Amino acid sequence: MIKFLIIIDESINYLSEVETALQQQRDTYKNNGVDIEYDIVRQDLSAVPWLTNIVSYSWINGETLTLRSTGNSAYSVVYIFDSSHWKAEGIGGWHMGSYNGYQIQLINSLRGNIRSNYLKLMMEGMHSWDTPIAKKLGISLSQYLGVFDYDETLVHGMYGQGQTLSQEESIRLFGEEYIKFDYSLLIKKIAPLLNKIFNPMVLTREQVELLYVLWDLDKDPAAIDFWTGKELSALLRVRFNDKCVIMNAEKNNPIIKSQI
Hints:
Elements: E1 2-9, H1 15-30, E2 36-43, E3 50-51, E4 54-55, H2 57-69, E5 76-82, E6 93-99, E7 102-109, H3 114-126, H4 130-137, H5 141-145, H6 150-156, H7 167-174, H8 184-198, H9 205-217, H10 221-228, H11 230-242, H12 254-257
Parallel strand pairs: 1-2, 1-5, 5-7
Antiparallel strand pairs: 3-4, 6-7
Helix pairs in contact: 1-3, 10-11
Protein backbone atom coordinates (compact mmCIF):
# COMPACT_ATOMS: atom_id res chain seq x y z
CA MET A 1 0.00 0.00 0.00
CA ILE A 2 1.37 3.40 -1.02
CA LYS A 3 0.46 6.15 1.41
CA PHE A 4 -0.32 9.73 0.38
CA LEU A 5 -0.67 12.53 2.91
CA ILE A 6 -3.28 14.93 1.53
CA ILE A 7 -3.19 18.44 3.00
CA ILE A 8 -6.33 20.34 2.03
CA ASP A 9 -6.59 24.10 2.33
CA GLU A 10 -8.97 25.10 5.14
CA SER A 11 -10.55 27.62 2.76
CA ILE A 12 -11.93 24.82 0.57
CA ASN A 13 -15.59 24.54 1.55
CA TYR A 14 -16.44 22.04 -1.18
CA LEU A 15 -14.63 19.14 0.47
CA SER A 16 -16.86 16.44 -1.03
CA GLU A 17 -15.76 17.47 -4.54
CA VAL A 18 -12.08 17.13 -3.61
CA GLU A 19 -12.75 13.78 -1.95
CA THR A 20 -14.49 12.57 -5.11
CA ALA A 21 -11.46 13.51 -7.23
CA LEU A 22 -9.20 11.69 -4.77
CA GLN A 23 -11.41 8.60 -4.89
CA GLN A 24 -11.25 8.63 -8.67
CA GLN A 25 -7.46 8.72 -8.47
CA ARG A 26 -7.44 5.81 -6.02
CA ASP A 27 -9.77 3.80 -8.27
CA THR A 28 -7.60 4.42 -11.33
CA TYR A 29 -4.56 3.03 -9.54
CA LYS A 30 -6.42 0.11 -7.97
CA ASN A 31 -8.02 -0.92 -11.26
CA ASN A 32 -4.54 -1.13 -12.77
CA GLY A 33 -2.79 -3.10 -10.05
CA VAL A 34 -1.58 -0.52 -7.52
CA ASP A 35 -3.13 0.17 -4.11
CA ILE A 36 -2.86 3.65 -2.64
CA GLU A 37 -4.34 5.12 0.52
CA TYR A 38 -4.82 8.63 1.88
CA ASP A 39 -4.44 10.39 5.19
CA ILE A 40 -6.34 13.68 4.91
CA VAL A 41 -5.71 16.72 7.09
CA ARG A 42 -6.81 20.35 6.86
CA GLN A 43 -4.33 23.23 7.01
CA ASP A 44 -4.50 26.95 6.44
CA LEU A 45 -2.55 27.54 3.22
CA SER A 46 -3.41 31.21 2.87
CA ALA A 47 -0.03 32.45 4.14
CA VAL A 48 2.21 30.02 2.25
CA PRO A 49 5.11 32.03 0.77
CA TRP A 50 5.47 31.98 -3.02
CA LEU A 51 8.37 32.80 -5.34
CA THR A 52 6.61 34.31 -8.34
CA ASN A 53 4.71 31.23 -9.59
CA ILE A 54 5.99 28.48 -7.31
CA VAL A 55 5.85 27.83 -3.58
CA SER A 56 8.97 28.73 -1.61
CA TYR A 57 11.45 25.87 -1.57
CA SER A 58 12.55 26.74 1.96
CA TRP A 59 8.94 26.58 3.15
CA ILE A 60 8.50 23.09 1.70
CA ASN A 61 11.82 22.04 3.23
CA GLY A 62 10.73 23.29 6.65
CA GLU A 63 7.30 21.68 6.42
CA THR A 64 8.70 18.31 5.43
CA LEU A 65 11.45 18.42 8.07
CA THR A 66 8.75 18.92 10.69
CA LEU A 67 6.72 16.10 9.18
CA ARG A 68 9.75 13.79 9.14
CA SER A 69 10.37 14.50 12.83
CA THR A 70 6.92 13.05 13.60
CA GLY A 71 7.80 9.77 11.90
CA ASN A 72 5.14 10.12 9.22
CA SER A 73 5.65 7.32 6.68
CA ALA A 74 3.86 8.85 3.70
CA TYR A 75 5.39 8.42 0.26
CA SER A 76 3.95 11.65 -1.08
CA VAL A 77 2.63 14.88 0.41
CA VAL A 78 0.00 16.63 -1.70
CA TYR A 79 -0.94 20.23 -0.92
CA ILE A 80 -4.36 21.07 -2.35
CA PHE A 81 -4.82 24.84 -2.50
CA ASP A 82 -8.04 26.74 -2.81
CA SER A 83 -7.80 28.75 -6.02
CA SER A 84 -7.90 32.00 -4.01
CA HIS A 85 -4.50 31.09 -2.52
CA TRP A 86 -2.89 29.80 -5.72
CA LYS A 87 -0.28 32.19 -7.15
CA ALA A 88 0.85 30.35 -10.29
CA GLU A 89 -1.31 31.87 -12.99
CA GLY A 90 -2.00 29.52 -15.88
CA ILE A 91 -0.50 26.51 -14.08
CA GLY A 92 -2.74 23.82 -12.60
CA GLY A 93 -0.20 22.00 -10.48
CA TRP A 94 3.41 21.30 -9.71
CA HIS A 95 5.46 18.22 -8.95
CA MET A 96 8.18 19.65 -6.74
CA GLY A 97 10.40 16.58 -6.49
CA SER A 98 11.73 15.03 -3.29
CA TYR A 99 12.10 16.86 0.03
CA ASN A 100 13.36 15.05 3.12
CA GLY A 101 12.19 11.72 1.76
CA TYR A 102 8.74 12.85 0.58
CA GLN A 103 7.55 13.43 -2.98
CA ILE A 104 5.73 16.78 -3.09
CA GLN A 105 2.82 17.84 -5.29
CA LEU A 106 0.94 21.13 -5.34
CA ILE A 107 -2.59 21.29 -6.76
CA ASN A 108 -4.76 24.27 -7.67
CA SER A 109 -8.25 23.10 -6.76
CA LEU A 110 -11.19 24.49 -8.71
CA ARG A 111 -14.68 24.51 -7.26
CA GLY A 112 -17.23 22.74 -9.43
CA ASN A 113 -14.63 20.95 -11.59
CA ILE A 114 -14.01 17.48 -10.18
CA ARG A 115 -12.65 16.29 -13.51
CA SER A 116 -10.00 19.01 -13.61
CA ASN A 117 -8.93 18.32 -10.04
CA TYR A 118 -8.68 14.58 -10.75
CA LEU A 119 -6.52 15.16 -13.84
CA LYS A 120 -4.15 17.44 -11.91
CA LEU A 121 -3.78 14.87 -9.13
CA MET A 122 -3.03 12.17 -11.67
CA MET A 123 -0.50 14.15 -13.69
CA GLU A 124 1.52 15.52 -10.78
CA GLY A 125 1.53 12.14 -9.04
CA MET A 126 2.67 10.33 -12.18
CA HIS A 127 5.69 12.63 -12.40
CA SER A 128 6.95 11.19 -9.10
CA TRP A 129 7.35 7.50 -9.93
CA ASP A 130 10.65 7.59 -11.80
CA THR A 131 12.51 8.71 -8.66
CA PRO A 132 11.79 5.76 -6.32
CA ILE A 133 12.07 3.26 -9.17
CA ALA A 134 15.53 4.58 -10.05
CA LYS A 135 16.62 4.82 -6.41
CA LYS A 136 15.26 1.49 -5.13
CA LEU A 137 15.53 -0.70 -8.23
CA GLY A 138 18.24 1.02 -10.26
CA ILE A 139 15.88 1.23 -13.23
CA SER A 140 15.45 4.25 -15.48
CA LEU A 141 11.79 4.43 -16.47
CA SER A 142 12.71 6.10 -19.74
CA GLN A 143 14.97 3.17 -20.65
CA TYR A 144 12.61 0.56 -19.19
CA LEU A 145 9.72 1.86 -21.29
CA GLY A 146 11.85 2.62 -24.32
CA VAL A 147 11.11 6.33 -24.59
CA PHE A 148 13.31 9.41 -24.82
CA ASP A 149 11.96 10.98 -21.62
CA TYR A 150 9.40 9.49 -19.22
CA ASP A 151 8.03 12.84 -18.07
CA GLU A 152 7.78 14.54 -21.45
CA THR A 153 6.93 11.59 -23.69
CA LEU A 154 4.41 9.91 -21.39
CA VAL A 155 3.32 12.01 -18.41
CA HIS A 156 2.89 15.08 -20.62
CA GLY A 157 2.52 13.23 -23.91
CA MET A 158 -0.57 11.26 -22.82
CA TYR A 159 -2.19 14.62 -21.99
CA GLY A 160 -1.39 16.16 -25.34
CA GLN A 161 1.15 18.53 -23.84
CA GLY A 162 4.45 19.16 -25.56
CA GLN A 163 5.27 16.12 -27.65
CA THR A 164 1.88 14.38 -27.85
CA LEU A 165 2.16 10.60 -27.67
CA SER A 166 1.10 9.08 -31.00
CA GLN A 167 -1.19 6.07 -31.12
CA GLU A 168 1.48 4.20 -33.10
CA GLU A 169 3.91 4.73 -30.24
CA SER A 170 1.24 3.68 -27.74
CA ILE A 171 0.75 0.39 -29.58
CA ARG A 172 4.50 -0.19 -29.49
CA LEU A 173 4.69 0.55 -25.77
CA PHE A 174 1.45 -0.91 -24.44
CA GLY A 175 0.09 -3.12 -27.20
CA GLU A 176 -2.96 -0.92 -27.70
CA GLU A 177 -4.05 2.66 -28.25
CA TYR A 178 -4.36 4.94 -25.26
CA ILE A 179 -7.18 7.29 -24.31
CA LYS A 180 -6.14 10.92 -23.94
CA PHE A 181 -5.95 12.05 -20.28
CA ASP A 182 -6.01 8.41 -19.12
CA TYR A 183 -2.89 6.93 -17.49
CA SER A 184 -4.34 3.42 -17.07
CA LEU A 185 -2.01 1.74 -19.58
CA LEU A 186 1.04 3.43 -18.09
CA ILE A 187 0.13 2.53 -14.51
CA LYS A 188 -0.47 -1.07 -15.50
CA LYS A 189 2.92 -1.15 -17.20
CA ILE A 190 4.84 0.10 -14.17
CA ALA A 191 2.67 -1.58 -11.51
CA PRO A 192 5.08 -4.54 -11.08
CA LEU A 193 7.91 -2.12 -10.31
CA LEU A 194 5.86 -0.11 -7.83
CA ASN A 195 4.61 -3.21 -6.08
CA LYS A 196 8.15 -4.54 -5.82
CA ILE A 197 9.04 -1.39 -3.86
CA PHE A 198 5.93 -0.69 -1.82
CA ASN A 199 4.25 -4.09 -1.50
CA PRO A 200 6.92 -6.69 -0.68
CA MET A 201 5.97 -10.29 -1.32
CA VAL A 202 4.63 -12.32 1.57
CA LEU A 203 5.28 -16.06 1.29
CA THR A 204 4.54 -18.74 3.83
CA ARG A 205 7.23 -21.25 4.72
CA GLU A 206 5.33 -23.95 2.83
CA GLN A 207 5.17 -21.83 -0.31
CA VAL A 208 8.88 -21.10 -0.14
CA GLU A 209 9.75 -24.77 0.30
CA LEU A 210 7.53 -25.73 -2.63
CA LEU A 211 9.10 -23.10 -4.86
CA TYR A 212 12.64 -24.21 -4.05
CA VAL A 213 11.80 -27.84 -4.75
CA LEU A 214 10.15 -27.03 -8.05
CA TRP A 215 13.02 -24.76 -9.04
CA ASP A 216 15.51 -27.54 -8.36
CA LEU A 217 13.44 -30.09 -10.31
CA ASP A 218 12.70 -28.03 -13.36
CA LYS A 219 13.75 -24.45 -14.05
CA ASP A 220 11.59 -24.22 -17.17
CA PRO A 221 9.10 -21.36 -16.54
CA ALA A 222 6.33 -23.08 -18.50
CA ALA A 223 6.65 -26.22 -16.38
CA ILE A 224 6.62 -24.21 -13.16
CA ASP A 225 3.56 -22.34 -14.40
CA PHE A 226 1.84 -25.69 -14.88
CA TRP A 227 2.69 -27.07 -11.43
CA THR A 228 2.20 -23.96 -9.30
CA GLY A 229 -0.17 -21.75 -11.22
CA LYS A 230 0.94 -18.47 -12.71
CA GLU A 231 0.65 -16.46 -9.49
CA LEU A 232 3.16 -18.55 -7.52
CA SER A 233 5.28 -18.99 -10.60
CA ALA A 234 5.57 -15.21 -10.94
CA LEU A 235 6.63 -15.00 -7.30
CA LEU A 236 9.23 -17.66 -7.94
CA ARG A 237 10.78 -15.80 -10.83
CA VAL A 238 10.84 -12.53 -8.89
CA ARG A 239 12.48 -14.28 -5.94
CA PHE A 240 15.27 -15.84 -7.93
CA ASN A 241 15.81 -13.28 -10.64
CA ASP A 242 15.45 -10.11 -8.59
CA LYS A 243 16.54 -11.39 -5.16
CA CYS A 244 13.37 -10.10 -3.50
CA VAL A 245 13.40 -10.41 0.30
CA ILE A 246 11.30 -13.26 1.66
CA MET A 247 8.93 -12.18 4.43
CA ASN A 248 6.82 -14.25 6.84
CA ALA A 249 9.13 -17.24 6.29
CA GLU A 250 11.07 -18.94 9.03
CA LYS A 251 14.65 -17.76 8.57
CA ASN A 252 16.05 -20.82 10.41
CA ASN A 253 14.51 -23.21 7.93
CA PRO A 254 17.54 -24.84 6.23
CA ILE A 255 16.02 -24.59 2.74
CA ILE A 256 15.46 -20.87 3.17
CA LYS A 257 18.56 -20.08 5.20
CA SER A 258 20.90 -21.47 2.56
CA GLN A 259 19.49 -19.11 -0.05
CA ILE A 260 19.26 -15.80 1.83
